[in-house]
Amino acid sequence: MAPHQRSLGTGHLEPTRSPKREHEMTATELSKEANAPRGRTFFPFLVLGIGIALSILLHFVIKDNVEGEAQLRFERQASDAQHVIEARIKSYADVLHGLAALFSTSDSISRAEFRRYVVALDLPNRYPGFQGLNYAEYVRSEAKARFEARVRRDTSLDPRGFSNFAIKPAGDRPEYFVLNYLEPMASNERAFGLDIASNPPVAAALAA
Question: What average pLDDT does the chain have?
């Protein structure tokens, strides 16, 4: 009988596996079994890695969009604020131009007329930035005495007049810019009659 064969009851010979062949098949099968779980184990980590990468990418995309929208919103708000400020400044400047126009229309605006003008402006509600309005009258040195006498006789606002009125600070100067009209007068009495040109910086600004 040939090696590696055995007799069967039917008279046929069945080849028998050598121990070496059995060993080789067993190693191959073990290799396949070892590789199969490794692939199955690696797949979840691959999915996780892709998910993390996509999350990071999405984070930066969203971050850029949010920052871009915030920048645009800030620019719009800044532009709106600038327009509001410019409009407010213009409105305040218009009040001052109107005040100058009032005194340019007449050489003798009474104190009562000035008060009516200021009251009509409704400063607290329409121009809250103004605590009050005043007008400084230009007076030459040679006209100082006549100017003081005229103010003392002015009874348009107070029937008693202003008998103690005098330009301050006292002293002779070539010219004066005297705060003669102030509203509200009640809170500005100390400034009434003040020569603002006696302050050097103010004098320099007036001369410019």
Answer: 76
Q: What is the largest CA-CA distance in the chain?
A: 158
User: Would the pTM count as exceeding 0.85?
Assistant: no
E strand residue ranges, 21-132: none
Q: Which secondary-structure segment (H or E) carries 78? A: helix 19-104
Secondary-structure percent of the chain, ordered helix, strand, coil, rounded to 5: 65, 10, 25
User: pLDDT, tens digit, for every residue of 8-34?
Assistant: 444 444 455 554 444 445 555 545 555
Nearest to 167 by CA among 186, 147, 185: 147
The three-class DSSP label of residue 175 is strand
Give the angle subtended at the CA of 26 by the CAs of 23 and 29, to the nearest 5°: 155
Q: Which residues pair with 135 in a beta bridge?
A: 181
Q: What is the DSSP letter of 92?
A: H
Structure tokens at 66: 């949010």
What residues contact residue 13 under an 8 Å CB cut-off, 6+ apart?
A: 1, 2, 5, 6, 7
Q: Measured between alpha carbons, how far is 179 from 197 in angstroms, rounded to an integer?
A: 10
